[in-house]
Amino acid sequence: MDSTIFRFLAWFVAAFAVAALLRRAPLFRVPSPISYLLVGLFLKLPALHVTPMDAWWLRRFGDLGLLFLMFLSGMEIDVHLLLARRRDGHHDGPSPAIVGTMMFCATLLFSFVCCACLTRFAPGNANPYMLSLLFATTSLGVVLPVLEETGYLRHPLGQAILYSAVIADFMTMLLVSLLLGAHATDNPWRVGLTLAILPIALGVGLGLWKLRSIPAAGRLLGQGMDRTRATIALVALFAMLADMTGSEPILGAFLAGMIVRGLSFAYKPLVEMYSYGVGYAVFVPMFFVATGYTMPIAQLHSQEALYWLPVFAAMAFAVKLLPAHVLLYSHGRRQTWAAGFLLSSRLSLVAAAAQLAVDAHMIPEMWAACTILVSIVTSLVGPLAWTLLAPQSPTVDNR
User: Fold this and answer.
1) Cα atoms found within 13 Å of the Cα of residue 399, Cβ hemisphere only
2) How far apart are the C-alpha atoms of 10 and 145, rounded to whole Å?
3) Which of 293, 334, 184, 158 lies closest to 245 in space, CA to CA?
């Protein structure tokens, strides 16, 4: 067996073992992505002898994992939920969609103001727009399971949080892709072309929706396993189309996930199960391992990094806690703080966008390392604070 393949198999076993042990920690549960990041950091140890060829393959696997992670994040967004009417039975007060949109817009504005001040007075050449997007995003993959496990998914508060997280997830992907395209070229036509992936995705989605009523198309696609292969091919196609239009492939994969989630077709539960199994068992762990390995941890040893870490952490919570006060009059102070802390959870998108920003020379490596480290802290503190602050048994009106 080739030595590189052997080491990759060993890393798979190590990543699984570390994630399984930390998930069953007696004090609090450590999310699996953080466990994989720790494995990637351990690979930096000189005793493990990671060769340049090993590192090259690890980064390539990480790129595939990033595409799959964005696809699975898109599958978390229920388009029907965005368009549906309120399910809580109440007809007074603003709807969760309006509240969630207000929260995200306030977060984005407040984040930009803070980052603009930060980049003006801080050393280093950092783009305030990109940095503000890193702070404004929310990890839907963390928020959705927490709301479901605690029974808040159908509650008005849970719906408002979910809407805010969904909008933050999608808009961050779109704005990051547009910002990177604008940074790469000064041609307005090329910048506008980066948005061409949106009508393309809409056209493909409508076309697939029409194909559902054609029996021959269903027979051609086959059963669950065949449709899973077609789904992976759809992800690859959208990634290539996004790259051809000047957009980011991760946005194409994200839109492919939204299309798969929004369509109703035979064997859909099997396709989702296979996709989650392949993604979260193989590709996504390798992305986080690669992120941990490429994370410029040496930058955090400097006195400057130690100075900025608490500033970044304070900003990460402040830009979510303050806008969450729109919930104060309808849900109370305790639940408002709980919502703010939960929406502060950010990891996957921050790790992806920070790496892209460093590659485009839009933020320094030290700041990227600080944002990734702070995102790890928020992913640990956010769900824990929600569990402590939110009532354990929400009352849902099902009239």
Assistant:
1) 4
2) 30
3) 184
Residue appearing with tokens 């910002």: 179
Domains of the chain: 60-84+95-389 (1.20.1530.20)
The dihedral over CA atoms of 95, 99, 100, 104, expressed in degrees to the nearest 10, equals 160
392: three-class secondary structure by DSSP: coil
For residue 33, which of 134, 135, 142 has the smallest C-alpha distance? Answer: 142
Which amino acid, 185? T
Task: Name the nearest CA neighbour of 81 among 149, 4, 147, 3.
Answer: 147
Tokens matching residue 282: 């193989």
d(CA 171, CA 167): 6
- 288 SS3 class: helix
Per-residue pLDDT tens digits of the chain, which is 399 residues long: 677 778 878 888 888 888 777 766 655 566 677 778 788 888 888 777 788 888 888 888 888 888 888 888 778 766 665 555 544 444 445 667 777 788 888 999 999 999 888 888 766 678 888 889 989 988 876 787 788 777 787 777 887 888 888 788 778 878 887 888 777 777 667 677 777 888 888 888 888 888 777 777 667 777 778 888 888 899 999 999 888 887 778 888 888 988 888 887 777 888 888 888 888 888 888 888 887 787 766 666 666 777 788 888 999 999 999 998 888 887 888 889 999 999 998 876 787 788 788 888 888 888 888 888 888 888 888 888 888 888 765 654 443
Instruction: Give, in order, the Cα–Cα distances in Å from 297 to each of 62, 368, 392.
Output: 18, 10, 38
If one counts every other C-beta atom within 10 angstroms of the C-beta of residue 292, the result is: 26
Measured distance CA(254)–CA(252) in Å, rounded: 5
Residue 299 burial (10 A CB sphere; 0-12, 13-18, 19+):
middle
Q: Which of helix, strand or coil describes residue 347?
A: coil
Rounded CA-CA distance 4/272 in Å is 31
Q: How wide is the angle at C-alpha 115 spanned by C-alphas 110 and 118, nearest 5°?
A: 130
Instruction: Yes or no: say if 345 and 378 are a contact pair by the CB < 8 Å rule.
Output: yes
What's this model's pTM, rounded to 2 decimal places? 0.74
Provide the 10 A C-beta neighbour count for residue 346.
Answer: 32
Residue with tokens 């690669």: 290
